Every structure is written in C-alpha cells, then in structure tokens.
C-alpha cells in the first residue's frame, strides 16, 4: 500500500471522528442535512469535471469503484461535506457582508490550499485543464448553496 492510500485512510478516520467532536448533539439532524445536501451538489459537479478531463484522481481509497465513478470519494463525499457542516453550524450570523466574505474565503481558501498541496506533492489529485481558482470558486458557490439550503431547512423546520 502506497503512502497516498495511507493518507486517505488517516484522512477518512479524521472525517469520521470530526463530526462526533465538532457537532453539538442538538445539531446532529442539521449536520446530516448539510452532509447529504452537499453531496447532491458535489457528485454531479465532480463527475462533470472528471468526465471533461479537467481533473483526475489517480490514487483512490477504493480503486475497484474507480471504473464506475472516477471522482474522489474521499474528497467529494467525505471531506468537503464535513467542511460544509462546520462552515454552516459555526456560521457567524451577526457579521456584516465584509465579514461574511472573509468567512467564505477562509474556508474556501483553506480547502483550495490543501488541494493545491495535494496536487503538487502527491498523486491524489492531478490538474489537467483545472486551475486552483476554479476550486476556490466552486467551493465558495457550493458552500453558499449548501448554507442557503440549510437556512431554508431551519426556517421550514420552525414553521412545522
């Protein structure tokens, strides 16, 4: 087993443990909604980017599934949804629009920075036509739609 697979295993364990440590017990339902809704966004977007040949994930945690779905299970179905949960559950509702922009850029920037490092130093991610700023933009858009859905969900939950 190569170092990249060990990295994916360790990263997956962190993603399994993180919600138990970071999600308050009264917000578990919200975390599930955030997790699943972001997957609705990332699955088709990730498939589109991979099928267009813009980005590739040469090393997979589950390589036998790679012939059916060439996106990164670890990144798009695990890490990014966990990031989105933390983003929305700890979203500072009382800040002005400049603070909101900073909040979005901190989360999206961190995620983008980590992907760029992985692309440069590992075989987990390979950019072809893809650029780092596309990751930044798509992460911001995904977080925005996911958070808006969460706010709508919470509003509907209160009315019931």
Describe this structure in words.
- By secondary structure, the protein is mainly α.
- It has one domain (3-7, 31-61, 69-154).
- 71% of the residues lie in helices and 2% in strands.
- It has helices at residues 3-22, 28-51, 73-89, 97-121, 132-159; strands spanning 55-56, 126-127.
- The chain has a two-stranded antiparallel sheet.
- Helix 1 runs parallel beside helix 3 (73-89), helix 2 (28-51) packs antiparallel against helix 5 and helix 4 crosses helix 5.
- The protein is globular and about 45 Å long.
- The chain crosses the membrane at residues 6-24, 31-55, 75-92, 101-118, 130-151.
- InterPro entries: CBO0543-like (IPR048147).
- Keywords: Membrane, Transmembrane, Transmembrane helix.
Assign the structural class, choosing from mainly alpha, mainly beta, alpha/beta, alpha+beta, or little secondary structure.
mainly alpha
Query: Could you list the spans in which at least 5 consecutive residues all have pLDDT below 50?
Result: none
Radius of gyration: 16 Å
Which geometry do the CA atoms define? globular
Order of strands across the main sheet: 1-2
**Largest beta-sheet details:** 2 strands, antiparallel
Compute the number of strand runs: 2
State the share of residues found in helices, binned by percent.
over 70%
Order of helices and strands: HHEHHEH
Number of domains: 1
Percent of residues in beta strands: under 5%
Number of H/I helices: 5
Distance between the termini: 51 Å
Whole-number mean pLDDT: 89
């Amino acid at each position: 087993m190569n170092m990249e697979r060990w990295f994916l295993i360790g990263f997956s364990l962190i993603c399994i443990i993180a919600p138990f440590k970071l999600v308050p017990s009264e917000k578990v339902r919200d975390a599930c909604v955030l997790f699943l809704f972001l997957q609705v966004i990332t699955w088709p977007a990730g498939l589109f980017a991979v099928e267009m040949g813009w980005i590739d994930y040469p090393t997979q945690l589950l390589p036998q599934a790679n012939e059916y779905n060439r996106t990164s299970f670890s990144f798009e179905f695990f890490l990014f949804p966990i990031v989105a949960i933390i983003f929305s559950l700890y979203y500072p509702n009382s800040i002005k629009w400049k603070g909101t922009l900073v909040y979005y850029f901190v989360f999206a920037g961190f995620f983008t920075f980590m992907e760029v490092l992985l692309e440069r130093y590992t075989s987990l991610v390979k950019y072809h036509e893809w650029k780092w700023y596309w990751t930044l933009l798509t992460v911001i858009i995904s977080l925005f739609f996911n958070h808006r859905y969460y706010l709508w969900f919470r509003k509907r939950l209160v009315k019931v």
